[in-house]
Automatic annotation (TrEMBL), chain B:
Pfam name, any one: NTP_transferase
Primary role: Acts as a component of the translation initiation factor 2B (eIF2B) complex, which catalyzes the exchange of GDP for GTP on the eukaryotic initiation factor 2 (eIF2) complex gamma subunit. Its guanine nucleotide exchange factor activity is repressed when bound to eIF2 complex phosphorylated on the alpha subunit, thereby limiting the amount of methionyl-initiator methionine tRNA available to the ribosome and consequently global translation is repressed.
Domain Nucleotidyl transferase intervals: 5-140
Superkingdom of the organism of origin: Eukaryota
Keyword Methyltransferase: no
Protein name: Translation initiation factor eIF2B subunit gamma
Native source species: Gouania willdenowi (Blunt-snouted clingfish)
Length: 493, 465
């Protein structure tokens, strides 16, 4: 894997060298393309650093260090030469999360993603320009936003993005339009489900893709995917797991050698996607279930929050293996996802109790363990999960109940966050409106001045409240997350 | 390609023969545009670039040659001609163009005038991976008096019973009153899965359907289904809840009505999309369910789903009866595209004699090339292309089609005058329908308060006071 990556990078460099040597007068487009390729190369190398690990970690320790030194030297030389040539390319702010490069020799400018800078008009203008270039309509903000969260986007479910698209969607592949609709309406919800659905849609896109003449599949397909990703981002901000999946795909596409025929390349890509899902999601779930079952003893009372596909899977597996336990499902408004979790567990035959989050301190004395799912695990050990998770962890800590977080490694993310304000997602505020006994109190909430409805989606839990993180690599403490990330990066050299 | 549009323009207009005996229904002028311009305009506005038009040879000829019925549509129209005499139902027509259908299709009828936001219907089709998604609208009472009708029209006979679930989007039950002899029978399987069902009767089917390609393939093999509205859609709605096992004959007692569909199982209709296993995996991991209260997964595990979007605001007319035609003519002037700068209510080529400015209400529409003399009063009417209206004519609440000549002193109220008719001087028409090319004698008195008459041939007597 490491070798092919290096040779792939070298290949591209040769192409560029050849073009320069031929001494043709490079037209403006070619120059732009050159710049883009160089950028992608650089990104490709960085992505290799930051992309996902194979299941076995400890393999290539010794030969990796030699290759590492070689690559470092080459990277340095390239960077110095590039900087003298390039100057300022004026790249618009991307939605990539700021990466921590392995060598600190050069400070990398960390760019904040646009979806958390909505109150800055310059950022909005840049975003509008970028969307216009990609021919994607922009979804408009809805309603009055609470001032603490006015830097985030807030959409209404009643105004889908498809309103502004033409109906037989020509610019965007129909599978992606369908996916975007399903995201924005909440039909596909949950970190794993969204990633799998995304990869499924990408499979359709790749199968239907034909390389235009004079283009290479490895470059053109990545460019084709960019507007789709912007579209999906507009429908609903991407999750960390989706971001990692996209990075993986882009890396795989860029690494397609140019001599591959189109059909072979497509087959290889489809295969890669299937492998990714199989390894990172399905097998990881099995591994996590296996580890967790050791932690579940007979007579346990397990508390779960909301509907996490992984935690449900673990509990169902444990029940099938014959462990005797009962489950307390804690739920919260407005999503009330716990009802779905309750249905799945009861269908299996597990005896469950259902409470709302306001009763969690009442029910906790009965609980022996808390199992939580995670949306993402941040690089400083914080757990990003559904809003309310940090409350549960806090109260559990107060009662001395162990909190176990289950998370696959592909959800590990290099962001660092210590509070839930900076980067979050605001859901449709109209979800908070409820009709009881024929009365809807919040019916005209927009008319009331200075009344804001806040429907947060995520919150972060500090690592002090989490006792154990169960991943497919084993059971690690929360503070080991940055180690895993670093090992992932090193492993792929 | 996501969707292909198909326009069904071969219908005969059997419920308004007075108007269609000479002009085919798709070419009837509504607001001075041929009727089929409206659905085509809807498709064009939304972003379609080509449409398959299924029509008769006569209509095709009129479309391409007749300047009065010119359609200024920028889309590419792929016209397929079928025999007009044959009893070709809409489903038969789809079977006929089976080869051209490459993706999911959007079937529109030529007599639909609506300003619906089409993305609402198509979004249901996309988001839920539905087999069929259709559009319905709350029916409006037609208030205008219709020539040739005594009293208010009774709307009893052909009611449609439509059952939707709690969200109002999923279609659970559809039957026409004509098919229900003994009463409304709802299968237990439906009630078990959807305990709360709203049954509505006052809905107008807009005959706009999004169908999966698998359905068109299914139609190609099953030649027994001939009408989309009458047979295919109720069949699909029923199929949602039938048993999914292959090779097992269904035991339901209500199956006696569709004996011709024996042996067809759900599996025939359900064509798995690509990577079905992956979709299933995503669905399992997703914490969403379309219903709650029972133990089953989203959609009750059913693969066949029918959805309906019910419009409660906005225009939706199906111009298949005379009253609908008149109502549509009134409403069309209120529709948004009449305010487009390109389409003048009073056409610039109008020749007006400005001695006494003729009074024209703002809700009238006057076509190109008209000659309107002075001292005329035109209120709430539609006047077609190349008509001549002489002095002292009062036209109220009427529809005047193309090429009509109205001599001076006429008084026309609540009437429909078809193309190329000549109304003699001093004629007084109230609530009449004058057929194509007819002549009304001068000083003809056709008070028709008691008998709202229809003049089709000269030999028919006038209704005299």
């Amino acid at each position: 894997m490491a070798d092919s990556g290096v040779s792939g990078g070298a290949d591209k460099k040769d192409n560029i060298e050849r073009e320069k040597i031929e001494g043709k007068e490079l037209t403006k487009e070619e120059k732009q393309r050159l710049r883009k390729e160089k950028k992608q190369q650089k990104k490709g190398k960085e992505k290799k650093d930051a992309s996902l690990p194979q299941v076995s970690v400890a393999e290539t320790a010794a030969p990796a260090s030699q290759l590492k030194a070689e690559r470092r030297a080459r990277q340095e030389a390239e960077r110095t030469s590039k900087q003298s040539k390039k100057g300022d390319t004026g790249q618009p702010a991307t939605t990539s999360k700021p990466k921590i490069p392995p060598n600190e020799l050069q400070p990398v400018v960390k760019r904040l993603p646009e979806h958390i800078q909505v109150d800055d008009p310059d950022v909005l203008k840049k975003l509008a320009k970028k969307l216009e270039r990609q021919q994607i309509p922009r979804r408009l903000d809805y309603g009055y936003k609470v001032s603490l969260f006015s830097h985030l986007l807030q959409y209404s479910r009643k105004a889908p993005l498809t309103q502004q698209l033409s109906i037989p969607s020509a610019v965007i592949h129909p599978a992606i339009v369908r996916l975007g609709l399903q995201y924005s309406q909440g039909i596909v919800a949950g970190s794993n489900a969204r990633s799998i659905a995304l990869l499924h849609a990408f499979k359709q896109v790749i199968s239907d893709y034909t390389t235009p003449s004079n283009e290479e599949l490895s470059r053109d397909l990545v460019n084709k995917l960019k507007p789709y990703i912007s579209f999906l981002n507009q429908c609903r901000p991407l999750s960390a797991s989706m971001g990692n999946a996209i990075k993986y795909i882009k890396k795989e596409i860029s690494n397609i050698p140019s001599q591959f025929k189109e059909d072979d390349a497509k087959k290889k890509l489809l295969n890669c996607i299937e492998c990714f899902i199989e390894e990172k999601i399905v097998l990881a779930a099995k591994a996590i279930a296996k580890s967790s079952i050791e932690k579940i003893n007979d007579g346990d009372v397990i508390l779960v929050y909301g509907c996490s596909s992984l935690v449900n899977h673990i509990l169902c597996e444990a029940f099938e293996k014959g462990r005797k336990f009962r489950v307390i499902v804690v739920d919260s408004r407005p999503r009330l996802e716990g009802r779905e979790a309750l249905r799945r567990l009861v269908q299996k035959g597990i005896s469950c109790t259902y409470v709302l989050i306001s009763a969690v301190s009442y029910i906790l004395p009965e609980v022996s363990k808390v199992f939580l799912g995670a949306h993402a695990l941040l690089a400083n050990g914080y757990v990003m999960s559904r809003v309310g998770t940090s409350q549960i962890a806090l109260v559990a800590k107060a009662f001395n109940v162990p909190v176990l977080v289950c998370c696959e490694t592909y959800k590990f993310c290099e962001r660092v966050q210590t509070d839930s304000f900076v980067s979050n997602e605001l859901d449709d505020p109209d979800d908070l409106i409820v009709t009881r006994k024929g009365e809807t109190q919040l019916k005209d909430w927009q008319q009331v001045p200075r009344l804001g409805l806040l429907n947060l989606v995520y919150d972060v839990t500090p690592p002090d409240f989490v006792d154990l993180v169960i991943t497919d690599l084993g059971m690690i403490p929360c503070t080991s997350v940055p180690v895993v990330l670093r090992v992932k990066n090193v492993d792929l050299l | 390609m996501e969707l292909q549009a198909v326009l069904m323009a071969a219908g005969g207009g059997s419920r308004m023969t007075d108007l269609t005996y000479n002009t085919p229904k798709p070419m009837l002028p509504v607001g001075n545009k041929p009727l089929m311009w409206y659905p085509l305009n809807l498709l064009e506005r939304v972003g379609f670039e080509e449409v398959i038009v299924i029509t008769t040879r006569e209509v095709h000829k009129m479309m391409s040659t007749d300047p009065k019925t010119k359609l200024d549509i920028k889309m590419k129209l792929d016209v397929v001609c079928i025999q007009e005499d044959g009893d070709m139902g809409t489903a038969d027509a789809l079977r006929h163009i089976h080869q051209k259908v490459k993706t999911d299709i959007l079937v529109v009828s030529c007599d639909l005038i609506t300003d619906v936001a089409l993305h609402e219907v198509v979004d249901l089709f996309r988001a839920h991976n539905a087999t069929v998604a259709m559009l319905m609208s709350k029916a409006h009472e037609f208030t205008e008096t219709v020539p040739g009708q005594k009293g208010k029209k009774k709307t009893a006979e052909q009611r449609d019973f439509v059952g939707v679930d709690q969200s109002g989007k999923r279609l659970l039950f559809m039957a026409n009153e004509a098919d229900l002899e003994d009463g409304l029978i709802v299968r237990r399987s439906i009630i078990r899965k959807h305990p709360r069902m709203h049954i509505k009767t006052g809905l107008v089917d807009a005959h706009l359907y999004c169908l999966k390609k698998a359905v068109v393939d299914f139609l190609a093999e099953n030649k027994s289904i001939s009408s989309i509205r009458g047979e295919l859609v109720p069949f699909l709605v029923r199929k949602q809840f039938s048993k999914m096992t292959s090779g097992q004959k269904r035991m339901d007692d209500t199956e006696t009505v569709d004996q011709k569909n024996d042996g067809l199982t759900n599996d025939d209709l359900f064509f798995p999309s690509r990577d079905e296993a992956l979709l299933q995996l995503a669905q399992e991991r997703s914490c969403w369910n379309d219903h709650r209260g029972d133990m089953s997964e989203a959609y009750h595990g059913g693969k066949l789903r029918c959805y309906v979007h019910i419009m409660d605001q906005g225009l939706c007319y199906r111009v298949n009866t005379l009253s609908a035609y008149i109502e549509a003519n009134r409403m069309v002037s209120h529709m948004w595209f009449c305010h487009r700068s390109a389409h003048f209510v009073v056409h610039p080529l109008l020749m007006l004699h400005f001695v006494f400015h003729p009074q024209m209400g703002s809700d009238s529409m006057i076509g190109a090339g008209c000659h309107v003399a002075d001292k005329t009063s035109i209120k709430r009417s539609t006047i077609g292309i190349s008509t001549t209206v002489k002095e002292k004519v009062k036209v109220t609440n009427s529809i005047i089609m193309h090429g009509v000549t109205i001599e001076e002193g006429c008084n026309i109220q609540g009437s429909v005058i078809c193309s190329n008719a000549v109304i003699g001087r001093g004629a007084d028409l109230k609530y009449c329908l004058v057929g194509n090319g007819q002549r009304i004698e001068p000083e003809g008195d056709t008070y028709s308060n008691t008998k709202k008459s229809i003049l089709l041939e000269v030999s028919v007597t006038f209704g005299l006071v």
